Amino acid sequence: MSDRKRDFPLDQCRCHLETGPVVLVGSQWQETRNLMVMGWHMMLGFTPAHFGCLISPGNYSYRLIRESRECTINVPTRELADAVVGVGNSKGYEVDKFAAFGLTPEHGECVSAPTVAECYASFECRLADDSQIDRHELFIWEIVKAHVDPTVERPKTLHYRGNGRFMIAGEEIDRAADFRDEML
Questions:
Q1: Region label for 77, one of left (φ > 0), alpha (ψ between -120 and 50) or beta (otherwise)
Q2: Which of 7, 72, 77, 181 falls 20 to 30 Å from 111 in CA-CA distance?
Q3: Got the DSSP string for 27-66?
Q4: Helix and strand tally (H, E) in the chain?
Q5: 60-119 pLDDT, tens per residue?
């Protein structure tokens, strides 16, 4: 092992591996809606577009999502950092997070869960596979509708590093010319 590297706590590995953007998950069951912050997610396929994420049964949104079998995934940018932290630090059974943090719920086209108007991208999802929920808290979604603001060319997304720290999406490099077509 390199002399520069040191042992690292296993429970902190996410600080280096969890690089996807923080998202706001919209949920609704009957008349109850909620927002939650999520950092643990991944794309699982492209056609159809499958998305996986972890949702703990201790989260207020869990029941809403299990009952409705749908949600929205909303991608905030740096400008929404205060709202993201506020949503993450509050409890859905105590407060309407949309109202409390100045976020605008919008009706989805394909699902009943609300999207967040202020987020530059929103994805409407239906549960595609529930076989891993009880064992691993892993929800596998099919994205059935995508809404993205094309004027946001390089979104400054938030990436949670753990311990209350975020990284902002940074510089972009373009290597598309070096890829074979099948790799794009």
A1: beta
A2: 77
A3: EEETTEEEEEEE--EEEEEETTEEEEEE--TTSHHHHHHH
A4: 5, 11
A5: 999 999 999 999 999 999 999 999 999 999 999 999 999 999 999 999 999 999 999 999
Kindly report the pTM of this predicted structure.
Answer: 0.90
> What is the rounded distance in angstroms from the CA atom of residue 27 to the CA atom of residue 153?
28
Task: Report the candidate in 59, 27, 29, 51 with the shortest Cα–Cα distance to residue 128.
Answer: 51
Q: Do 98 and 92 contact (CB within 8 A), yes or no?
A: no
Burial class, 183, CB count within 10 angstroms (exposed 0-12 / middle 13-18 / buried 19+): exposed
Residue-wise pLDDT tens digits, 123-161: 999 999 999 999 999 999 999 999 999 999 889 999 988
Cα 176 from chain centroid (whole Å): 26
CA torsion sign for 108, 75, 82, 9 is positive
Single out the residue of 93, 109, 110 nearest to residue 35, CA to CA.
93
Q: Which amino acid does the sequence have at 162?
A: G
Please say whether the beta carbons of 59 and 66 come within 8 A.
no
CA proximity to 123, closest of 41, 31, 32:
41
pLDDT digits 0-9 by tens, 112-127: 999 999 999 999 999 9
Rounded Cα distance, 16 and 161, in Å: 7
